[in-house]
TrEMBL record:
<feature type="transmembrane region" description="Helical">
    <location>
        <begin position="155"/>
        <end position="174"/>
    </location>
</feature>
<keyword id="KW-1133">Transmembrane helix</keyword>
<keyword id="KW-0812">Transmembrane</keyword>
<protein>
    <submittedName>
        <fullName>MFS transporter</fullName>
    </submittedName>
</protein>
<dbReference type="InterPro" id="IPR036259">
    <property type="entry name" value="MFS_trans_sf"/>
</dbReference>
<feature type="transmembrane region" description="Helical">
    <location>
        <begin position="322"/>
        <end position="343"/>
    </location>
</feature>
<feature type="transmembrane region" description="Helical">
    <location>
        <begin position="496"/>
        <end position="520"/>
    </location>
</feature>
<keyword id="KW-0813">Transport</keyword>
<feature type="transmembrane region" description="Helical">
    <location>
        <begin position="249"/>
        <end position="266"/>
    </location>
</feature>
<feature type="transmembrane region" description="Helical">
    <location>
        <begin position="67"/>
        <end position="85"/>
    </location>
</feature>
<feature type="transmembrane region" description="Helical">
    <location>
        <begin position="29"/>
        <end position="55"/>
    </location>
</feature>
<feature type="transmembrane region" description="Helical">
    <location>
        <begin position="97"/>
        <end position="116"/>
    </location>
</feature>
<feature type="transmembrane region" description="Helical">
    <location>
        <begin position="350"/>
        <end position="369"/>
    </location>
</feature>
<dbReference type="InterPro" id="IPR011701">
    <property type="entry name" value="MFS"/>
</dbReference>
<feature type="region of interest" description="Disordered">
    <location>
        <begin position="1"/>
        <end position="23"/>
    </location>
</feature>
<keyword id="KW-0472">Membrane</keyword>
<feature type="transmembrane region" description="Helical">
    <location>
        <begin position="217"/>
        <end position="237"/>
    </location>
</feature>
Length: 534
């Protein structure tokens, strides 16, 4: 982000950050509180909805590919729009952008709660992702304007801690709401939080705009990237249903490749490109972006499958599943300050590499989980997972933003967040496709080994396979012996675990590749310049 410019007179200029006088507007610590409340909704949504997914699938009768889009649609919209949202904040002011994002996020959350079918849920989740994208870059811009350079890192650290705490609270809060109120309450909870963010924002925030703000937007670039990413993820999600060699699958995947190439060519010609290609001349920055994609690929894929494993295979209630996930999300809070301390002393390379190796071990450990695995074993791998990803998240700002030219630091910050969201969307889609294929392969054999008769009706067989992809056993028929009910559940759960194991092995390989990439990272070489209030 370029240095801000003062447009007020000396008399109207805000007081120094540590000596607020004559009102609270622009107060640095209250600005931090305000933006933390707003962004907390986005962080909370990342894990709270994962707990609700199994119940949403059941209540709305969603297919596996549709329930994946509840997550993938949100993440994709968030990822595609983050960089554009950063430029919107530079052009129209970060305060206005933040307030629109907070109100829009709360409003779309309410609309999801009132939705009566899965298609409406997915549509408003996409809109929710767009408004969430407005919040994050605007929050960072407001912090840069409120704090002097020597205190900005402390502010971002506290802000990151709030996000980590919200992420950790998601499974617990989500479990309690789903179990005692209903899945709709998971989204309704954002309404009062959004109203608080709006009220605080109007009262506290002082607007910040970048010097030489963009006067136009790269609309062709936005269109090419958005359509290209949609084609890629949609093709991957539908491939298990259509077949990987099917013409429709190849059309979407091939179209995505063509659109991405066109996007890259256009970025080299555009007057104000969405993503300046000059950013990628830095090897550490490029490695950091890809590192974020790979980390999120493995992590978000893991979260998606684990919730179904805990609730459908182990039969846990949503709140119990949330408690079992707490070691992983809780370790993110503990690991983040430790990682920050280590990165400050050693630089990012060693802590990030070690973190990705821990994540690799955790993924391999999760691939050994079975239908009867105990809480202790699961908690061990969850703890390692939380500790492993912390150095990557903490070090990403220094690796990506720190190695970008100062005038492109805002774009680099959006690129960092976009890389994480794209990785999460692709991870959910790709690992979901691999798991669906594995479950389809092993289910007939497990069904036969259980002594169950073949399912002759093709429609019933397809429903059985779709349920097995989520770990859901078919309901018991009237008069069916308990032995047969248990045999069906055992065959389905064993098939689900086989698919989950394959997904975790692939995720472990991706995490190991990220550990190798981390060797190319280094401490940022660009010093942050001062930021001044408008």
């Amino acid at each position: 982000m370029s240095q801000s410019v003062v447009k007020n007179s000396e008399a109207d200029a805000p007081p120094p950050p540590n000596r607020p006088s004559g009102g609270l507007k622009g107060h640095p610590w209250l600005t931090l509180l305000t933006v933390a409340v707003g962004v907390m909704m986005v962080a909370l949504d990342g894990t709270i909805v994962a707990i609700a997914n199994p119940v949403i699938q059941e209540k709305l009768g969603a297919a596996p590919s549709e329930i994946q889009w509840v997550t993938s649609g949100y993440l994709l919209a968030l990822a595609v729009f983050l960089i554009t949202a950063g430029k919107i904040g530079d052009r129209f002011g970060h305060k206005s952008t933040f307030l629109v994002g907070a109100v829009g996020f709360a409003a779309t959350s309410a609309a999801i709660g009132f939705a009566g079918n899965i298609q409406t849920v997915i549509a408003f989740r996409v809109l929710q992702g767009l408004f969430g994208a407005l919040l994050q870059p605007a929050a960072l811009g407001l912090l840069r304007g409120a704090f002097p350079a020597e205190r900005l890192n402390m502010a971002i650290g506290i802000w990151g801690g709030v996000i980590g705490a919200s992420t950790a609270a998601g499974p617990i809060v989500g479990g309690l709401l789903v179990e005692h109120v209903g899945w709709e309450s998971v989204f309704f909870i954002n309404v009062p939080v959004g109203l608080i963010a709006l009220a605080l924002g109007l009262w506290i925030l002082r607007d910040v705009r970048a010097e030489n703000a963009a006067r136009s937007f790269d609309l062709p670039g936005i269109g090419l990237l958005s359509v290209g990413m949609f084609a890629l993820v949609f093709g991957i999600i539908k491939a298990p249903e259509w077949g990987w060699g099917n013409g429709r699958t190849l059309l979407f995947l091939g179209g995505a490749v063509v659109l991405m190439v066109l996007f890259a060519l256009w970025q080299g010609r555009a007057k104000e490109p969405l993503i300046p290609l000059s950013l990628f001349r830095s090897v550490p920055l490029s490695a950091g972006v890809l590192l974020m994609v790979l980390m999120a690929f493995a992590f978000f894929g893991a979260i998606f499958f684990v919730t179904f494993y805990l609730q459908n295979v182990h039969g846990m209630k949503p709140v119990d599943a949330g408690v079992h996930l707490l070691p992983m999300t809780g370790m993110m809070i503990v690991g983040s300050p430790l990682a920050g301390l280590a990165i400050g002393k050693l630089g990012p390379r060693i802590p990030i590499t070690a973190g990705m190796l821990l994540t690799t071990g955790a993924m391999f450990g999760m691939s050994t989980l079975g239908t009867g695995s105990g809480t202790g074993v699961m908690s061990l791998w969850f703890v390692l997972m939380g500790l492993g990803i912390s150095p990557v998240i903490v070090g990403a700002t220094e690796v990506i933003v720190g190695n970008a030219p100062l005038e492109l630091s805002g774009v680099a910050g959006g690129l960092q967040q976009a890389a994480m969201q794209v990785g999460g969307s692709l991870g959910t889609a790709v690992l979901g496709a691999l798991m669906a294929a594995k479950v389809g392969d092993v289910l007939p054999g497990n069904w036969a080994k259980a002594g169950l008769p073949p399912v002759a009706d093709p429609q019933q067989a397809e429903l059985l396979k779709q349920g097995a992809q989520l770990g859901i056993a078919p309901p018991a028929q009237p008069g069916m012996p308990q032995q047969a009910v248990d045999a069906m559940a055992g065959a389905v759960h064993q098939s689900f675990v086989s698919g989950m194991s394959l997904a975790f092995v692939v995720a472990a390989a991706v995490a190991f590749a990220a550990a190798l990439l981390a060797l190319l990272t280094r401490r940022g070489s660009t010093d942050a310049g001062p930021a001044v209030h408008i």
